[in-house]
Amino acid sequence: MAANNDIVIKIATVNGTGSASANGLLRKAIFRMGVPVVGKNYFPSNIQGLPTWYEIRVTADGHQSRSNRVDIMVAMNAQTYKKDMAEVEPGGWLLYDSTWPRSDLLDREDISVIGIPLSRLCNEHFDGVRARILMKNIAYVGALAALLDLDLAVITGLLEETFGDKQHLIASNMEAIRLGYDYATEHFSCPLPHKVEAMDATKGHIVIDGNTAAGLGCMYAGATVGAWYPITPSTSLMDAFRSFCSEFRFEAESGKRTYAIIQAEDELAAIGMVLGASWNGARAFTPTSGPGISLMSEFIGFAYYAEIPAVIFNVQRTGPSTGMPTRTQQSDILACAYASHGDTRHVLLFPADPEECFYTAQQAFDLSERLQTPVMVLSDLDIGMNDWMVPDLEWDESYVHDRGKVLDSEALEKIEKFYRYLDVDGDGIPYRTLPGVDPKGAYFTRGSGHTRHGAYTEDSDAYQDVMDRLLVKWETARTLVPKAEIRYSKFNKAALLTVGSGHGACVEALERLSAENVGLNYCRLRAFPFDDSVREFLAQHEVVYVVEQNRDAQLRTLLMLDADGDPARLVSLLHYNGMPINAGFVVDAVQAERSKGRAA
Amino acid sequence: MSYIAKPKVAHPSLKRNKLGLTTRDYEGAVSTLCAGCGHDSVTAAIVQAVYELDIEPHRLAKMSGIGCSSKTPAYFASESHGFNSVHGRMPSVTTGANMANRDLTYIGVSGDGDSLSIGVGQFLHAIRRNLNMCYMIENNGVYGLTKGQFSASADVGSKPKKGQPNQQEPIDPVSVALSLGATYIARGFSGDKAQLVPLIKGALKHGGFALVDVISPCVTFNDHEGSTKSYAHTRQFYHHVVDMDYVPPAAEIRAAYEEGSAMPVELHDGSRIVLRKIDGDYDPTSRAAAFKYLRQRFNEGEIITGLLYIDEERDEMHDLMGNVDRPLSELSLDTLHPGAAGLGKVLGRYK
């Protein structure tokens, strides 16, 4: 049930009608009033004409995930009207454009209907088809402002920031706000029983999407080469990187660019460019999604075997195949962990929200250069494209990027002979050299069988020697990747475990389960290979509920493969319908398992 | 074993270049290709070209894909970094490498299977970007390592050792490069080193995408009667159309050229190419004319060779993108972001 500052507003519109900026205005206004918000965008794979929704969760408690509830539905799309109305919680509200009254309004007697003649009002006050359509969106924000008791001064301030010195746009937008606001005030009892009350809970926070944060992280990591092929939902990561670079990446004297972004002909080329650039000493990355990983797989195996750094962002979407490209999932976990033919395994990093996307981007480059291997950042559409409230991102001026084991001329001079794949330090990580630096450092990079000295081989022992050393490196990786976040509430035999965007929902679910007297310990994985604490954690519990967003329990499989997880104790709670996971799902799934008598 | 280091013993009378190196210093491992393979002649021409250009070995990057041709970077310049990538993907790796460090000289060695079938997409896009590299295709019309299947450059009617003649139209890399805007397009023959060496030198010095398509017969699978990529067929039907000399920066043009036939072109680093037209009607600066000429002669069954097209005006990829003159790989990472203060400013947009 809704309460003050605990309200979910869902806005149903048609793709391409310009509702995004109106929805953003509404979300920002609530945030500016000091009240935590979550913004989720449910959009079609389409440019214009198909249904789209924006959901704002007003959450005084600062929850991170979506709520599986709608208190106020703004039903602007006739096409989805019935379905939208059915979604409203009993006792909730439906706001619709009453220019055209609907006969089936009374289907739901348990909700209240608020009709605002948005089209009529806008047609009377604005000229031009486009302006009328756009202002209709702003007008519903005005109506919601009255219904939710939003601060009009905050809205005015936001419009002034958006439009700067374009006074006529500020005036017309404010006029539209007023149209909705005044009509709602005159015809309905405003505000509604549950409204937005100013708080002080957003100071030191921002609202940002994960792709923007990751793009920003790549800039701070010092990435100079970005190669990519456009694919939803990863495209906005490169867009963000490009935008930050165009602002900050110029050589002072010449005005020339200190970055190269290449739109590749396909993902095979994108990863090839990343490998070429990394081999040659630049920090290079590519953002992609599942189908791109499939195409990159041959090269990913090459990079594993030839030991070339590469940073790959996989903003996962719903598969298999084209699947539902604008819906979220965590279904590339296994495909990424073991991408490519032959014996390969790859370091994966799992950010849980946009804040972690920023820091993980930097870690990914450091780890990739330290370990001389591809590092994949597994984000997803929910993290990448939705609006999350997170603490202000910080930059530590004393931070030193880790460029790994690279021998310069001076270092080369001190050694008798350079061998590319020799495990000098016993950690499985050999030294590398960069082309162009010193003739003594020359070596031949190849995906074919090679010896520890870097020479071609078809000799069984020499081949196996390198393959075994790569396993030593894997164990070193285990000690370098970010440790899992583990929370012991008290002595519990049962635990909850998740990864990535499951985190927000699980944390909220733990609170709710605790209120229902179900105590669970918690483990949130942050990387693969799994650090030793994960192995211990699994061994400590009689049952571990593994929450993940795919059909085939991929994370559970990985826990069995890499952390000796006992299949009898790992109980899957799977959410794979393409919508972001929510706490209610986790609570219900845990309770359903418990009722089967599975301990805890 | 397929990797045998070649002993580095140079005869004292061997000539030395400006760096004091002999051709032996530009050699690599012993070739494991078949005896008589055209590719080994191409390797020898590359060694000669980089030696004559006084290129420091470690400033040269050798790139390749997969196939007989792609093995050859192991057979020259052992003091250069080499990157033997995956099948058909040499262009993308070279693109990335070049983006990271524009100061190195890039030579990519590919084959007709690597560039015209599995890697045709990357080949085309590297041309479009005017990537600054020398792109060699060792073109023999067959797949060698998998034992003699036709490649996409096999001519219609060319006969395999076994089975039916090829019926599909060939992809001619020179025509493709012409149509896509390559800025240096040459064709040579592995059996004509005198012509080939200057073509490679010009390609290495050209500021942009330079294609050198080399007819390089496969002695094992495609050197028989009825093959259009055999030594005998190539010798019979190949014609020099435009030969060239490479003249280093600040050197004088000394050769005596016949009136009207010599055409000097200045390269971006001040060196020059002097084109010598064998066919006086040919215009190697006109894309349209070159294309028409090529197709006409092709239809007559002739293989025309030489520096077939050159455009020294168009910017290479870095300059098209507006990139800094220094290698991106040499920029200090600390200079590549606006620090804590800049971050604070950025965050204001998300409040």
Short description:
With 600 residues, chain A is of the alpha/beta class. In chain A, the strands form 5 sheets. In chain A, strands 9-8-10-11-13-12-21 form a 7-stranded mixed beta sheet, with helices on both faces. Chain A has a 6-stranded mixed beta sheet with strand order 2-3-1-4-5-6. The longest helix of chain A is centred in the N-terminal third of the chain and has 21 residues, at 167-187.
Question: What does this 3D model show about the protein?
Answer:
Chain A is an alpha/beta fold and 600 residues long. Chain A folds into 4 domains: 6-187, Pyruvate-ferredoxin Oxidoreductase, domain 3 (3-Layer(aba) Sandwich); 208-391, 3-Layer(aba) Sandwich (Rossmann fold), CATH 3.40.50.970; 406-480, no CATH class; 485-595, 3-Layer(aba) Sandwich (Rossmann fold), CATH 3.40.50. Chain A has a 7-stranded mixed sheet with strand order 9-8-10-11-13-12-21, with helices on both faces. In chain A, strands 2-3-1-4-5-6 form a 6-stranded mixed sheet. The longest helix of chain A is centred in the N-terminal third of the chain and has 21 residues, at 167-187. Chain A is globular, with a radius of gyration of 27 Å. Chain B has one domain: Thiamin diphosphate (ThDP)-binding fold, Pyr/PP domains (Rossmann fold, 3-Layer(aba) Sandwich). A 10-stranded mixed sheet of chain B has the order 2-1-3-4-8-7-12-9-11-10, sandwiched between helices. In chain B, strands 5-6 form a two-stranded antiparallel sheet. The longest helix of chain B has 15 residues, at 38-52. Chains A and B meet through strand 7, helix 7, helix 9, helix 10 and strand 17 of A and strand 2, helix 3, helix 5 and helix 11 of B. Strand 17 (444-446) of chain A pairs parallel with strand 2 of chain B, so a sheet runs across the interface.
* Class derived from helix and strand content of chain A: alpha/beta
Number of domains of chain B: 1
CATH top level of the largest domain in chain A is: Alpha Beta
CATH architecture label name of chain B:
3-Layer(aba) Sandwich
> What's the tally of helices of chain A?
19
CATH topology of the largest domain in chain A, which one? Rossmann fold
Shape descriptor of chain B reads: globular
Number of strands of chain A: 23
Fraction of residues of chain A in helices? 25-40%
CATH superfamily of chain B: Thiamin diphosphate (ThDP)-binding fold, Pyr/PP domains
Q: For the largest beta sheet of chain A, what order do the strands appear in spatially?
A: 9-8-10-11-13-12-21
Q: What average pLDDT do the residues of chain B reach?
A: 93
Count of helix runs of chain B: 11
| Helix-residue proportion of chain B | 25-40%
Instruction: Indicate the CATH architecture of the largest domain in chain A.
Output: 3-Layer(aba) Sandwich
What general form of chain A does the structure show?
A: globular
Q: Compute the CA-based radius of gyration of chain A.
A: 27 Å
Distance between the ends of chain B? 64 Å
